[in-house]
From TrEMBL:
This is ATP-dependent DNA helicase. It is found in: Nucleus. The lineage of its organism: Eukaryota, Viridiplantae, Streptophyta, Embryophyta, Tracheophyta. Residues 246-391 form the Helicase C-terminal domain. Coiled coil: none annotated. CDD domains: DEXHc_RecQ, SF2_C_RecQ.
Length: 565
C-alpha cells in the first residue's frame, strides 16, 4: 500500500552540523518499515546531510541504498543517483514509488512524453521528484549537465550518490569508461556533497574511486565484509560420480528453497536446468543468449517464486534484491574471489542462514585459466591482474583451513578463525576436507599426469560465443545485454555501444547486435542521413560474413566520427 509522504523532518540536532538520529530513524521507520539503521548507514547519512563527501564500503546486501534514500527525504530538493544499469534504476524507482516516494529515472528507453514530464517537473518552481536516477552517460552530456547546474543554482541539488562506484575504477570488476567522466561533477557542482558507494573491497579500487571523483576530505566508512549467515562449502567435481546428480540431491535435501546456480557457459545453464526440471525441481535458465522477453519472464517467475531455481551466467544478479535466496551455487569456478564474494553474497540478504556451494573441478579451472590468459593477452597493458586474482579463488578451493578467513583476508580483513564457529565446511569437518584434498591431488595427478593439483595447461579448445557474459564483464565490466546503460546523446550513446565493446573478442552475433544498436541510435537522432548510406549499412548488417561485418563496422564508425565533428 502506498504511504503518504512524511513531511520533511527537521533533521537538525542540537549540534547544528549533525542531523539528529531521532528524526532520521523516524523517516526510516515510516518509509521503509525498518526498526533502526544497520552498520554504518547512520554515519553515512549524517555525513552527507551535513554536506560532507563520503566513501561508503558495505558488503553486498548491506543496505547501501538507504544511505542516499533517507537524505532525499530529509531535506527539500533532489538527490541525484548515478547507476550503471537501466534495469537497476527501474527496479529501485518502482520499489520507491510503491512506498510513495517520488522517484524517477531518465533513460533513452523511456517514451518521449515520460521524459518530457520529468524534465517539466525538474524545470518547475518546486520539483516533486526527490530521487532522480540517471546513467553516467547522461551525466556526460552537455544538455543534462546544464540542467544540473540550473537545479544547483536554485539550491535544489542536495546530494550526488554514485552507486556501484567501483565502476569508475579500472581496478574494479565492473570497469566502465563512461564513469570516469563523473569527475566533471565536482568541477561543475563544486559544493554538492558526493556519496560514493561500493561493495568492492580492494584498497586500490577505493583509492582510485576517491581520486577519480575528487572527493574532498571524505568520511571513509568501511564495514566488515563478513557474512556470518552464509555457510561456505566446496564440493570436488573430480571426486563425484556425477556433479549434476550431486547438485540435484543437494537441492532436494534442502526442500523447496530459492537458489541461484551460476555456470560459466550458456549451454551448461540450459542442460542443468533441463536436468533439474526432469527430477522435479522447478528451474529455469537465464543468460544473454535468450531474448529479452524470455529473460524477463524467467526473472519474473523466479522473483515471484513461481520458479524455485534460476540457472544463470554472470549476466544475472546485479541489482536483484530478492531477500530469501537460501543458496548460491557456483557450478563452475568463478574468475576471482571478488566475483565469488559478490555472487555468493546474493544469498541471505534477509540475514537468515544461507549457503554458498562451489563445485570445483580441475578441468573447469584449466578452462578459466585459459580464458583469463586470453583476456590478459588481448589487453595492451602487461597487467597480470586477472590470473593473480584467480589464484586466490583457486587457493580457496584447493587448500585446507577456514574458507571464511580466506575470503576476508583476500579483502585485507583480518579474521580470527575461532570466530568462524564452524560456519564453513573446513572448520566444521576439517578431516573430511583434508581427505578430499588428498584424494583430489591423487586423482588429478593420475588424470592429468602431474604431481601438482595446480595445472596450467592452455590447450583447451573453447567456443568463445559461450562466454560473452564472461568477456563483457571482464573487459569493460558492463553486462553483455542491452540493459547496460545508455545516453541521450547520439554520439555518446553510440560510442558507449561500439567503442569499448568492439575492442574485445566478441562472437559474431554479439558484434551484429552491437552494430545494430549503434546504427539504430545513429539514425534515431540523425534523420538527415543519406538513404544510400543507410541501405549500405543495413545490407551489410544482414550479412554475417566477416568481411562484410568489418565493412559495416568501419562504416558505422565513420558515421559516428562525422557526428562528433
Ligand atoms: N536498516 C535496515 N534494516 C533492515 N533491513 C534493511 C536496512 N537497510 C536496508 N535493509 C534491507 O537490506 C536489503 C539490501 O539493501 P540494499 O539493496 O540497499 O543493499 P545494497 O548494499 O545496495 O546491496 P547490493 O550491493 O547487493 O546492491 C534490502 O532488502 C533492504 O530493504
Amino acid at each position: 500500500m502506498k504511504k503518504s509522504p512524511l513531511p520533511v523532518q527537521n533533521v537538525q540536532s542540537s549540534d547544528k552540523n549533525v542531523a539528529g538520529k531521532e528524526a532520521l530513524v523516524k523517516l526510516l521507520r515510516w518509509h521503509f518499515g525498518h526498526a533502526d539503521f544497520r552498520g554504518k548507514q547512520l554515519e553515512a547519512i549524517q555525513a552527507v546531510v551535513s554536506g560532507r563527501d563520503c566513501f561508503c564500503l558495505m558488503p553486498t546486501g548491506g543496505g547501501k541504498s538507504i544511505c542516499y534514500q533517507i537524505p532525499a527525504l530529509a531535506k527539500p530538493g533532489i538527490v541525484l543517483v548515478v547507476s550503471p544499469l537501466i534495469a537497476l534504476m527501474e527496479n529501485q524507482v518502482m520499489a520507491l514509488k510503491e512506498k510513495g516516494i517520488a522517484a524517477e529515472y531518465l533513460s533513452s528507453t523511456q517514451a518521449t512524453h515520460v521524459k518530457n514530464k520529468i524534465h517539466e517537473d525538474l524545470d518547475s518552481g518546486k520539483p516533486s521528484v526527490r530521487l532522480l536516477y540517471v546513467t553516467p552517460e547522461l551525466i556526460a552530456t552537455k544538455g543534462f549537465m546544464l540542467k544540473l547546474r540550473k537545479l544547483h543554482s536554485r539550491g535544489l541539488l542536495n546530494l550526488i550518490a554514485i552507486d556501484e562506484a567501483h565502476c569508475i575504477s579500472s581496478w574494479g570488476h565492473e570497469f566502465r569508461p563512461s564513469y570516469r567522466q563523473l569527475s566533471t561533477l565536482r568541477d561543475s557542482l563544486a559544493d554538492v556533497p558526493v556519496l560514493a558507494l561500493t561493495a568492492t573491497a580492494a584498497p586500490k579500487v577505493q583509492k582510485d574511486v576517491i581520486d577519480s571523483l575528487n572527493l574532498r576530505n571524505p568520511l571513509v566508512l568501511k564495514s566488515s565484509f563478513n557474512r556470518p549467515n552464509i555457510f561456505y562449502e566446496v564440493r570436488y567435481k573430480d571426486l563425484l560420480d556425477n556433479a549434476y546428480t550431486d547438485l540435484g540431491n543437494l537441492l532436494k535435501s534442502c526442500g523447496n528453497i530459492c537458489a541461484i546456480i551460476y555456470c560459466l557457459e550458456r549451454t551448461t545453464c540450459d542442460d542443468l536446468s533441463v536436468h533439474l526440471s526432469s527430477i522435479g525441481i522447478s528451474s529455469a535458465a537465464y543468460h544473454a543468449g535468450l531474448n529479452s522477453k524470455m529473460r524477463s519472464t524467467v526473472l519474473d517467475d523466479w522473483l515471484s517464486s513461481k520458479k524455485q531455481i534460476i540457472v544463470a551466467t554472470v549476466a544475472f544478479g546485479m541489482g536483484i534484491d530478492k531477500k530469501d535466496v537460501r543458496m548460491v551455487c557456483h557450478f563452475n569456478i568463478p574468475k576471482s574471489m571478488e566475483s565469488f564474494y559478490q555472487e555468493s553474497g546474493r544469498a541471505g540478504r534477509d540475514q537468515l542462514p544461507s549457503r554458498s556451494v562451489l563445485y570445483y573441478g580441475v578441468d573447469d579451472r584449466k578452462k578459466m585459466e585459459y580464458l583469463l590468459r586470453n583476456s590478459e593477452n588481448k589487453k595492451s597493458s602487461s597487467s597480470k591482474k586477472p590470473t593473480s586474482d584467480f589464484e586466490q579463488i583457486v587457493t580457496y578451493c584447493e587448500s585446507s583451513g577456514c574458507r571464511r578467513k580466506k575470503i576476508l583476508e583476500s579483502f585485507g580483513e583480518e579474521f580470527p578463525v575461532q570466530q568462524c564457529k564452524k560456519t564453513c565446511d573446513a572448520c566444521k569437518h576439517p578431516n573430511q576436507v583434508a581427505h578430499c584434498l588428498e584424494e583430489l591431488m591423487t586423482t588429478a595427478s593420475r588424470r592429468h599426469n602431474s604431481s601438482r593439483i595446480f595445472i596450467t595447461s592452455s590447450n583447451n579448445k573453447t567456443n568463445e560465443g559461450q562466454y560473452s557474459e564472461f568477456w563483457n564483464r571482464n573487459e569493460d565490466g558492463s553486462n553483455s545485454n542491452e540493459e547496460i546503460s545508455d545516453s541521450d546523446d547520439a554520439t555518446e550513446a553510440a560510442n558507449s555501444v561500439t567503442g569499448p565493446k568492439l575492442s574485445k573478442k566478441l562472437g559474431l552475433d554479439e558484434k551484429l547486435v552491437l552494430l545494430e544498436q549503434a546504427e539504430e541510435k545513429y539514425y534515431e537522432r540523425n534523420k538527415q542521413v543519406k538513404k544510400s548510406e543507410k541501405n549500405a549499412i543495413s545490407e551489410a548488417l544482414r550479412d554475417s560474413s566477416k568481411q562484410r561485418l568489418l565493412d559495416a563496422l568501419t562504416r558505422v564508425l565513420q558515421l559516428l566520427a562525422c557526428v562528433e565533428e
